[in-house]
Amino acid sequence: MKNLAMLFCATLFLTSCSSSQNKNKNDKEINIKGYSATITSAELKDMLYTYASDDYEGRRTGEPGQKKAIEFIKNNYESNNIPSPIAEGDYFQEIPASYFGSGINDSENVVAYIKGSEKPEEVIIISAHLDHIGVSKNGDINNGADDDGSGTVAILEIAEAFKAAEKDGNGPKRTIVFLHVTGEEIGLYGSRYYADEDPIFPLKNTVANLNIDMIGRIDPKHEASGKNYLYLIGADKLSKELHNISEEVNKKYFNLEFDYTYNDDNDPNRFYYRSDHYNFAKNNIPVIFYFNGTHADYHRPSDTPDKINYDFLETRAKLIFHTAWELANREERIKLD
């Protein structure tokens, strides 16, 4: 009975917190679903067919295709009037060639943000890597539609949803940073540069990192069920509160299947250490890594936009938006265990 009572209290706590986050400073109800409805499969598809096209030559770090990619991302932020925290009109955090391994040219992270209305010094970072593996030796282009075109366009749509809220006077209480990192495929360089060399926002003020790396496909394990799902990695490693909020948001709005297989400390794939969230986690910043699992087209030229499940991608992006909303608007910053 004691355990049941504790569970009831925890649920009541999360529900009451959730309801308080859905009101603006004038105590008027905020239509969060209305803002997340701006995230659409049609817009995701339109962007991804461009971003993962042959014109971008597989977006290899430092190469011409990657330079096209950062311009694409920048243009999206400019068209939505979402500014850069670096300087007006300057969205690129430049990383010199000397920071990379031999043979890699200079490259760039892309950074945009929406300033918090009440606690602007506290920051939620939503990240995805903008690069891929480029062109194979036989000339085949590795388009990287899922890896990580899906995460890139998801962030652009999430940013648009937050901007719609801000336009209505319902901007997030905490600052939301949209961080597109380079060099992930060659060793998590872009996120490491941000975290270790040039954190645009102090790491001590960074509340959480929500990292998106491959959320557009279905892996063999989940094909038969037909149910939308995501692998979540890292949510409970540094903050059980983050894990609980994540679960509550999902149950309240979406009821996706959350698969924690790869969250096991003994998972041989070691995905917890293999994407950009790790460079935040190693600095004691709570993280969630959103992932659809691997598939036959992983790191192959056949990872193309026509293989993406855009309805699933839309719902997954909406889930991440709602989770970021909760983190940005709750009264207290989430606690480290």
From TrEMBL:
One of its GO terms (biological process) is proteolysis. Residues 109-322 form the Peptidase M28 domain. It holds the Pfam family Peptidase_M28. InterPro entries: EF_Hand_1_Ca_BS, M28_fam, Peptidase_M28. GO terms for molecular function: metalloexopeptidase activity. SUPFAM superfamilies: Zn-dependent exopeptidases (SSF53187). It comes from the Bacteria. PANTHER family: METALLOPEPTIDASE M28 FAMILY MEMBER, PEPTIDASE M28 DOMAIN-CONTAINING PROTEIN. This is Peptidase M28. It comes from Algibacter marinivivus.
